Amino acid sequence: MAESPKISTVYDSKWGWYQVWVENRCLREKAGSCEEGKKIARKYIAAEKLRSSHRELVLAACTE
After folding, report:
1. What global pTM score does this model have?
2. Angle at 23 between CA 42 and CA 55, to 5 degrees
3. Residues 6+ apart with CB under 8 A from 4
4. What whole-number distance in Å separates Cα of residue 18 and Cα of residue 38?
5. In whole angstroms, what is the distance from residue 35 CA to residue 20 CA?
6. Which is it for the CA torsion 25, 52, 48, 4, positive or negative?
7. Count of CB atoms within 10 A of residue 41's CB?
8. Are the beta carbons of 46 and 54 closer than 8 angstroms?
9. pLDDT tens digit sequence for 18-33
């Protein structure tokens, strides 16, 4: 099983919200709390897995 991507949140004191990071990618969504940021990141990871799975199915259907 593949290792889970690293999730982190960084508080931006200038604007008063958390930046949400997955590996080295900063998501465009902003979170009001650290926990909210982690939820956003987990949803992003799940969506990426779903997109990847869908691409594989489409490519498999095209080669038949």
Report:
1. 0.79
2. 65
3. 45
4. 10
5. 10
6. negative
7. 23
8. no
9. 999 999 999 988 999 9
